[in-house]
Specification:
12 helices, about 15% strand, elongated, 5 strands
């Protein structure tokens, strides 16, 4: 008995099309929708391109209407017909001129009553929503609330001093020890107003929110850049008198057969006449100064910063 319905156009594949469809249906990076469409076309191409749509749908577990749709699309446009068509959407409401206006104002102007733009103030100025302003800033990598600072050294001997300090780090002298020296002042001696209650099962460690001040102190530290060990000393103040006492301590603790190279910043205490006279009587000590505004070259500064961070994390805001 003759088949009912309109006769189907045979779906015939070239060798190249078949190879592409098989590859797309198996490729890990193909979307699931594209893989199913490829299997639909491959199934329809069986039986000389006349396999019923119902059989293909039953084999793949999909609706027959889906098979009919993609069979027709492939016959009309071949492989290009398997891609999703561009869907219509709402018309664009924000123009390029509005986006440009937000960017120009962000880069070249400041609000009248503030130091930098916020999403709310820019939204008021531009007539856009705060979320739209935020998306524009994110797309162009703009963060008006962030400010980075920098300082340029005005030391006329900047290059020579950098080479001197870095040279000590990379190639220290023989029979010598290199110490990065600095003082951390205004260290607050704080204590909780009540004993800390230890952690227990189901209950975190508890401490009072208030604290008692026990004054301030100054830490003198010398970091051995070769081993990472630190020689420290605590003093009430950080004058030349205290720095001289610290140098005397270094003289006692460093073996007498080693020269001592000290890397310091340009703080006046380090160059005080009292210190100069002490150095004359202790010739194994050699001072090396970082360039002005370049104390970041002194490794002990990083050590002090890490110590402060660890203290804040362990002790909280206090």
């Amino acid at each position: 008995m003759a088949g009912r319905g309109r006769p189907k156009t045979p779906l015939m594949l070239t060798d190249e099309e078949r190879e592409t469809l098989v590859r797309w249906s198996r490729r890990a990076k193909s979307s699931q929708a594209l893989a199913v469409r490829c299997r639909i076309v491959l199934g329809c191409a069986e039986d000389d391109g006349l396999r019923p749509n119902q059989d293909v749908a039953q084999q793949l577990g999909i609706w027959p209407q889906t098979v009919t749709k993609w069979r027709r699309r492939f016959l009309q446009r071949r492989l290009d017909g398997l891609a999703d068509e561009q869907r219509p959407g709402a018309p664009r409401k924000i123009t390029d001129e509005q986006i440009e206006d937000v960017i120009v104002k962000t880069l070249e102007a400041t609000p009248a009553n503030a130091t930098h733009w916020s999403r709310a103030s820019m939204a008021t100025q531009s007539g856009l929503s705060k979320s739209t302003v935020g998306r524009v800033w994110k797309a162009f990598g703009l963060k008006p609330h962030l400010v980075d600072t920098f300082k340029l050294s005005n030391d006329p001997q900047f290059i020579d001093k950098v080479r001197d300090v870095v040279g000590l780090y990379l190639d220290p002298p023989e029979n010598a020890i290199v110490l990065a020296v600095d003082e951390k002042s205004q260290i607050q001696a704080l204590d909780r107003s009540a004993p800390v209650l230890p952690m227990m099962p189901g209950m975190p460690e508890r401490r009072t929110h208030d604290y008692v001040r026990h004054g301030i102190t100054t830490l003198f530290a010398a970091l051995d850049v070769a081993t990472g060990t630190v020689i420290g000393s605590i003093h009430r103040r950080h004058r030349a008198v205290e720095f001289k006492k610290f140098l005397t301590k270094l003289d006692r603790e460093v073996p007498a057969d080693l020269d001592v190279h000290l890397i310091c910043d340009n703080y006046g205490t380090h160059k005080h006449p009292t210190i100069q006279r002490w150095l004359v009587t202790h010739p194994r000590f050699h001072m090396h100064f970082t360039p002005t505004y370049s104390s970041w070259l002194n490794q002990v500064v990083r050590h002090a910063s890490r110590m402060s961070t660890a203290t804040l994390i362990e002790g909280g805001a206090a």
